[in-house]
Amino acid sequence: MSSYQEFLNERDKIDYLIQKGYKISGVTENLSGAFVEFELQTEGEAGTNEKEVLHILTADARKYFSSLIIKQRSVV
Asked: Strand pairing partners for 33?
């Protein structure tokens, strides 16, 4: 798979979670990529939070989620 196709795949996964209402709650970077933590706050009985973690490998996808973090912080 080309690196551009890998980026598109990772971007689609990020966009899917964002569209479902998840927000980026944390990022852990290491030599094997970035682990992006997403959190969805539900207004259920205990106010539980659903969490998802994506392993992002491509540099373009890292730039993409970085721009989403900046956008997310400017809205708050």
From this structure: 30
